[in-house]
Write a structure and sequence with these properties.
The chain has 4 helices and 6 strands; from the N terminus they run E-H-H-H-H-E-E-E-E-E. The chain is globular. It has a 4-stranded antiparallel sheet with strand order 1-2-3-6, covered by helices on one side. A hairpin with a 2-residue loop joins strand 2 and strand 3. By secondary structure, the protein is an alpha+beta fold. It has a single domain, classed as T-fold. Helix 1 crosses helix 4 and helix 3 packs across helix 4.
Length: about 140
């Protein structure tokens, strides 16, 4: 995590809450972790779970496909008000909020495109970024 304020303590506390809520939901719905199919909407679920359900239903995959990005995004949302710039990385998934344009390079292992392909992140807006080649790092997550 990179931030313009010292928010490490707040981040640690918020992260514990987010993870506890997710773990409690999984405890009561163990199949949530292993399903590769979209999970039904659950208005009684904690916000982190609702985020995961909503985004993965759009693309037809199981909710754990969004776990790293959802945690980064939820934490970013909570810390944004106290930071002018913020970068949170979780398992290769990024939450970014910047004040000036930034370029993010993409690592693709031994591919000739590694570090030669990237994205320009525009300022003043929160961004979520995730890439997956299926060859660098695990593409299946149980959290």
């Amino acid at each position: 995590m990179e931030a313009t304020s010292d928010c490490r303590e707040q981040a640690a506390n918020d992260l514990k809450i987010i993870r506890r809520q997710l773990k409690e939901y999984i405890y009561h719905h163990p199949e949530f972790v292993s399903t590769l199919s979209p999970w039904p909407e659950d208005p009684s679920a904690p916000e982190i779970v609702q985020w995961m359900i909503a985004v993965t239903r759009k693309v037809g995959v199981g909710p754990m496909a969004a776990v790293a990005g959802a945690i980064a995004g939820m934490l970013g949302k909570k810390l944004l008000s106290s930071n002018k710039e913020l970068l949170i990385e979780n398992g290769g998934d990024l939450f970014l909020f910047v004040q000036k344009s930034r370029e993010v390079a993409i690592y693709a292992g031994n591919s000739p495109f590694s570090w030669k392909t990237g994205l320009r992140i525009q300022p003043g807006k929160a961004w979520g970024l995730c890439t997956s080649s299926g060859t660098v790092g695990p593409s299946y997550s149980q959290g």
